[in-house]
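Ligand-bound model needed. zinc ion.
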Amino acid sequence: MIHRGLALLQGLARPFMLDEARCAGCGLVAQAGPGRQSSLCPDCRLALAPQEVAACPGCGQRQDAQPEVLQQPSALCAACRQSPRPWGRLVSFGAYEGRLRELILAYKFQGRLGVGRQLQECLASAFERQAHVFPELAACELVVPVPLHVRRLAWRGFNQSRELAKLLARRRGLPIRQEALMRVRRTVPQMELGRSERAENIRGAFAGAPKFLAGRTALLVDDIMTTGSTLEECSRMMRAAGAAQVHVLVLARA
Ligand SMILES: [Zn+2]
Ligand SMILES: [Zn+2]
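Prediction:
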């Protein structure tokens, strides 16, 4: 009887204790300590904290220069100066590596929604920080998530780019217009292809809608940028549909 009573007590206490001790990011037991501000473990807290790394405002490539130097609109990298990207500014929260990469994958493929809330915050705060440096970002009138093909959407159940953009859109009072950019052709997942194959694979996969884009400045949002060929194709199609300008916001850049 005593054992059963103890087991029952432990059983009652367990869910509560686990809730308290689990990291909202990785799901591992967080190291509780005095002054612990959030339910994130130290590694996740570090991965999701704002990163003060100098990056090219055209492509997001990290640069060695001091952040003060790069916070000048002209500080494009050599590649972007030579062949400008088909968008105005690119904002990236962080590098697609380490714990941040693990968290994005957990969100995308396991649908870990607690992680999603944290990532939404990362995306929103990255945009706000850059909007102080590049006032043209404040001209964005609508948010356009990179669309998934309808069959991929059915399989995954959600478009991660759209979900990630929600907090930013709410704070800025911007509409999310998925209809502004449609996926008209199914493609092989880009991650299965090499660099040169990606641009070919994605060509003609999207169509912009002038009804939503003509004369407007749009913010194109995606979770991960690898070579940038998907974003370039999307941006071109949006400009072809009459968008006055397209800026890009991604959570992580490979
Ligand atoms: Zn964690
Ligand atoms: Zn660049």
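The beta strands are 90-95, 142-145, 181-183, 206-208, 217-225, 245-253.
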